Structure formats: structure tokens, C-alpha cells
Amino acid sequence: MSNSQNKSPVTRVELQWESRVVIKTERLSGLRASWVGTWLVAAACASSGFAIGDDSAIQIDFWYGPVQEFGHLGGHPQKQVNILGHVASTSELVKLEYSIDDQDAKELSFREDRKRIARDGDFNIEIDRDVLPKGRSKVTVIATTGDGKRATKSVTVIHHAGKAGQRWPLPYKIDWSEVENIQDVVQVIDGKWELSQGGVRSIERYYDRCFAFGDASWQDYQVTTSFKVHQLTGPREGPNSTGVTHAAIALRWPGHDYDGKQPTVKWHPLGATAEFRLGKSLKQCRWRVFDGQRQFYKESTKRRTLQFETTYKMKHQVTTTKSGESVYRTRLWEFGKPEPTDWDLVRIEPKDDVPTGSALILAHHSDVTFGNIEVVELPKLKSKKTNNAKMPK
Fold first, then answer.
1. How many Cβ atoms from other residues are within 10 Å of residue 21's Cβ?
2. Domain span at residue 14?
3. What is the Cα–Cα distance from 168 to 174, expressed in whole angstroms?
4. I want to staple 311 with a disulfide (CB 3.0 to 4.6 A). Which of 38, 90, 159, 335 is the partner?
5. What SS3 class is residue 131?
6. What CA–CA distance (Å, rounded) separates 62 from 83?
7. Are residues 67 and 187 in the same domain?
8. How far, in Å, CA of 7 to CA of 28, rounded?
9. 347 and 291 belong to one structural domain
10. Residue 326 and residue 354: Cα distance in Å, rounded?
11. How confident is the model at residue 385, as a pLDDT?
């Protein structure tokens, strides 16, 4: 630092409470103008989620806003809450952590992993609801770069723990045209989703971009939605790649199972996932119902060709027989045409099937817009017969 008597005007930056930066010019003596400017800008920007240094800038982005609520509809879709976002930096990011209410920091994964972390800098703060404080708390992300720069940014989390007996409503409907905040009506688990014309869109194609609705009180129910495929991205070669693209509805979802990873990647056990496989060019599309307990699947022999930018309806339901088996049914048809009476694929799971859970909408390596969603409760089946004549459409 120099003590030369530089009388030149220098720029001072003041950070206001409303997060506006006000530029003021005044004369300071005894300090180099360049040093004063750097120090003041760094101090101001650090509290806004930026760190400024000689060659480093860090920006922390929470995808779903500065205030995020969980459990506000009366129930929780899964065991965890997820806070998603991305850190951008002009220097290499070497460490990423988070803390709850300024307690001990925990490390976050931020390298692409071919599973839940789609690109370097992405993060998924997965917090078990049992350890998340009730009511309002602060979750802070701490980012450190290789040149020693550090930035923090916080999000307010409101945890509605609820009272005994409170549940997610059933029947349940989502009209996306009436939604301003995606997480007002669903809980996003993975990926960057945006409201768009006709629904909600997975704007970054990767492994199992998904959101959930419902809770552990949901047992026998049916989910109907629509989808439109915009683009496909084939999975990369190598480990952690399933080699498929699909749009899917999963039923009886309890949340990812604990496996020691951050975030967890073990997606089973659950009821079943009905994946409509899209292939590489939409020319060999078919259903695959994936058992969420034993990881076996049943695939439809019927192949069909879909069209990009065309809307299709899809439906997946689960019902329990009196003897305890779970029957999963699924069908797909073009939007605006009569709904078929037959199911495309039926799968029966034994008595040890996951008995209850929420619903999950997924886009796997695909750019898809999902339309309005309707969920209805179903009666138990009297037998394992797969005839659907008396089942609601």
C-alpha cells in the first residue's frame, strides 16, 4: 500500500438495504485510489453473493428464489428438502459448503457426476427434514476458489412441520397458468425447471430432472398429465449412464434412499416408475415400468413414433388388491384424441411393494414441457384382474 498524497477523486461504493449499489465520488487523501476502490467494491459485493479480487468473481444463484417453503400444503413429498442452484466463478471453484443458521458447515458436491449434479458448479443441498429446524431458518452457501477468494450467500427456508394428521390434498390439480412460483405447488428435487407456455419445462437436459407432489398418505391414486418433447440429449458413454431418454411418472415415492453420497443417488425403493422411453429420435418409443423394489422392469412390446413439439397425454395409476398386491397401469395417447380404453402396460407387484408415497414427474436426458396435472384417489381392487372397465379414466 502506498501513502502517496494522491488528491484525485476516487469511487466509493455503498451497499443499500434494498440491494441497490449507489455510486458516490469524493476526495480521499493518503490512499491510492485503486486500492480504495478495490477494497470497497469487494466489501459491498461479498454481502450480495459476489467476491471480487484481482482476477476472481464468484456468483451464487439459488434457482428457486431467496425464500423457499416446504410443507406449506399440509404434507411433504419425501424425507428430504432440496435447495438447488449454481456457482459461477472466473477462477476454479475448489470448495463448496453450506451451513444452517451459521452452524458447522458441511461439504457440497459441485462436480458433474453423471447423476444428480449436471454440470460443474451445480449444487443440491439435500437436508433431512428431521434435522431441519421448524419454522424459519437460514441456509448459507460458502464458495471458495483456488486463488483464495471466498463468497457466501444465504436463502431463507421456511419449514412447515405440520400437525399430526395434516396431509397433502387429494384429489389434487395443478393448472400451470395460475402458478407464479413452481414450488408453490410442487417440490423440485433435481434440475432447473421454468414455467413456460403450456406448463413447466426442464430447461437443462440431464439425468432424472424431477419434481414431486403428494405425501406418504397417498396409497391408491392416478396421475394424468401431458408432455411435449422439444429436444433429446443422449446419455454419455461410461459409468453412471442408463443409456435411455424418457418422460416418466413415478408413484409411491418416499425420497432418495441414504447411500452416503452428497446428494444421495439411490432412487429405490419406491413403488414403480412408468418411463415412456423416447429413444434417440422418437421412432422407437415404448413404455417401461420399472419395479422400485427389485429393480426389474417390464417393457411394452408395442413401439410407436412420436413427433417433436406435439402434445401427448400420459396416465399412470396404482391400486392395491384385497390380498395386498399392487397393480400399476399406464397409457399414452395424442392430445385432443379420444383416450384409449385399454392400458398400454400393466404390472403387478407382490405384497412387499412400497405401500404409499407421493408422485414424481421426471425428464431423463430430455427437454420436455409437462402440462397440467390431475390426481384422483382410486378404490382398492377386488382382485388382481387387469380389466380396466370399472376403473376411472
1. 12
2. 9-48
3. 13
4. 335
5. coil
6. 7
7. no
8. 7
9. yes
10. 9
11. 58
